[in-house]
Specification:
By secondary structure, this protein is of the alpha/beta class. The protein folds into three domains: about 50 residues, no CATH class; about 130 residues, Rossmann fold (3-Layer(aba) Sandwich); about 160 residues, 3-Layer(aba) Sandwich (Rossmann fold), CATH 3.40.50.720. Strand 10, helix 12 and strand 11 form a beta-alpha-beta unit. Helix 2 packs across helix 17 and helix 12 packs parallel to helix 13. It starts with 6 loop residues before the first helix and ends with a helix. The model has no long low-confidence stretch (mean pLDDT about 95). The structure holds NADPH dihydro-nicotinamide-adenine-dinucleotide phosphate. NADPH dihydro-nicotinamide-adenine-dinucleotide phosphate binds next to helix 9.
């Protein structure tokens, strides 16, 4: 289902492909942006002459380092650590750390590139970065996770700081890991600063940060539906993943009157036709966050739930789909199944979960489709609010942060409408809106700062 690219986009992508062929996820992320931004830049000569997009695809700086640590058996373990400092035109580098065996330079560069546009959309002064390691926290003891985090931070602390680069969590990096990382930073630098976000509430964390990405994604879906004259209430929702983003997307969607019928992990998915209500979600949070178990156990604990080993949930009939697990988890075939089953809205909680073929299906069928850089920006937005609270040595209430989060998601939606609404209809191309909206602020800052 390949579609021909605009000749200017093709020319740009040929060069990207030739140079970065060994980084497929990065090339994929660049192409999604280039399809919108190359034609936009052709019409806006100042960006073209200054080669803004060509500069944006090259990180300002990349660190790759050895992370040696000792496991519980006393054996030496070696992992690779990374930090990509992608763009600091509008603020300090900001973006999460991912600990997962699949982590490599291509995946982190795609995430860092996306992060630049996302952070710009939040309206807050944050540049873009991303980092992580091929370390797998799954199956490791708390002691091993701590040893790894301490070794990782021993190198990373040389390159980050509250005013230069502020990491946060991502896949495999939750409250436990952020706590260990912060402890080691403080020990080595002798500074108590907001150098990481997603911290515990006792040491500078913000209320609503754990909830922010999932809640924000649901707020965004609600905005899209409302703008289209519909509502979220009463809708059946299919969610993938069962980690941080998926859990709080499930919570907020349920609170707003929708019925969430699936969650998943990398082993399979559960289908609960009765809906995953607050009580059942509490079971999942305990299972995944404390016992670190598998989603399969949910099907064993509740009546009427089916478990599908090795499958993804996109075949389940729904009105709204929220992919909240990982990149490229929803392909063209799955997208066609969703559309055929009546799905009218897809809001991405994960980063780049839809393949280019899937996006093509959503666009062809003109359903409401929000790319992650718009719909999952709530997490980094509240990280930005955590940085503000740390700098000012204050703590806002949960209501205050949730209110600000909602306003930011509404503002991102308005930006998408501004740049993405079709001239003679109410249809909004959210891919176009998010990419141009995110690009303009960074591009103007880069123009103002000269050739750096
Ligand atoms: P978690 O580690 O908390 O959860 C990840 C979930 O996705 C788990 O259920 C995991 O299953 C599943 N998963 C991970 N890798 C795969 C895979 N290769 N195939 C199938 N399932 C997989 O991560 P988060 O919830 O924080 O992140 C989820 C997504 O949201 C990521 O794309 C992340 O980049 C994005 N995101 C996160 C933000 C945040 O604030 N945390 C902010 C913005 C975006 P299993 O337990 O089996 O590994």
């Amino acid at each position: 289902m390949e579609t021909a690219l605009d000749p200017k986009v093709q020319e740009f992508m040929d060069k990207v492909q030739a140079k970065y062929a060994h980084e497929p996820e990065f090339v994929q992320a660049v192409q999604e942006v280039a399809e919108v931004i190359v034609p936009y830049v052709e019409e806006n000569k100042k960006y073209k002459d200054a080669k803004i997009l060509e500069r944006m695809i090259v990180p300002e700086r990349v660190f790759i380092f050895r992370v040696p640590w000792l496991d519980d058996k006393g054996e030496y373990q070696i992992n690779t650590g990374y930090r990509i400092q992608m763009n600091s035109a509008i603020g300090p580098y900001k973006g999460g750390l991912r600990f997962h065996p699949s982590v490599n330079l291509s995946i982190l560069k795609f995430l860092a590139f996306e992060q630049v546009f996302k952070n710009s959309l939040t309206t807050l002064p944050m540049g873009g970065g991303k980092g992580g390691s091929d370390f797998d926290p799954k199956g490791k003891s708390d002691n091993e996770v701590m040893k790894f985090c301490q070794s990782f931070m021993t190198e990373l602390q040389k390159h980050i700081g509250a005013d230069t680069d502020v990491p946060a969590g991502d896949i495999g990096v939750g409250a436990r890991e952020v706590g260990y990382l912060f402890g080691q930073y403080k020990r080595l630098r002798d500074e108590f600063t907001g150098v990481l976000t997603g911290k515990g509430l006792e040491f500078g964390g913000s209320l609503i940060r754990p909830e922010a990405t999932g809640y924000g994604c649901v707020y965004f879906a609600e905005e899209m539906l409302t703008f289209a004259g519909d509502e979220l209430k009463g809708k059946t929702v299919v969610i993938s993943g069962s980690g941080n983003v998926a859990q709080y997307a499930c919570e907020k969607a349920t609170q707003l009157g929708a019925k969430v019928v699936t969650l998943s992990d990398s082993s399979g998915f559960v289908y609960d036709p009765n809906g995953i209500d607050a009580e059942k979600l509490a079971f999942i949070m305990e299972l995944k966050n404390v016992k670190r178990g598998r989603i399969k156990e949910y099907a064993e604990a509740f009546d009427g739930v089916e478990y599908y080993e090795g499958e993804k949930p996109w075949g389940i009939k729904c009105d709204v789909a929220m992919p909240c697990a990982t990149q490229n988890e929803l392909n063209g075939e799955a997208a066609q199944t969703l559309v055929n089953n009546g799905c009218i809205c897809v809001a991405e909680g994960a980063n780049m979960p839809s393949t280019p073929e899937a996006i093509h299906v959503f666009e062809q069928n003109k359903i409401l489709y929000a790319p992650g850089k718009a719909s999952n920006a709530g997490g980094v937005a509240v990280s930005g609010l955590e940085m503000s609270q740390n700098s000012n040595r204050i703590a806002w209430t949960a209501e205050e942060v949730d209110y600000k989060l909602k306003l930011i998601m509404q503002s991102i939606h308005q930006t998408c409408v501004k740049y993405g609404k079709e001239e003679h209809s109410d249809f909004v191309d959210y891919v176009k809106g998010a990419n141009i909206g995110g690009f303009v602020k960074v591009a103007d800052a880069m123009l103002a700062q000269g050739l750096v």
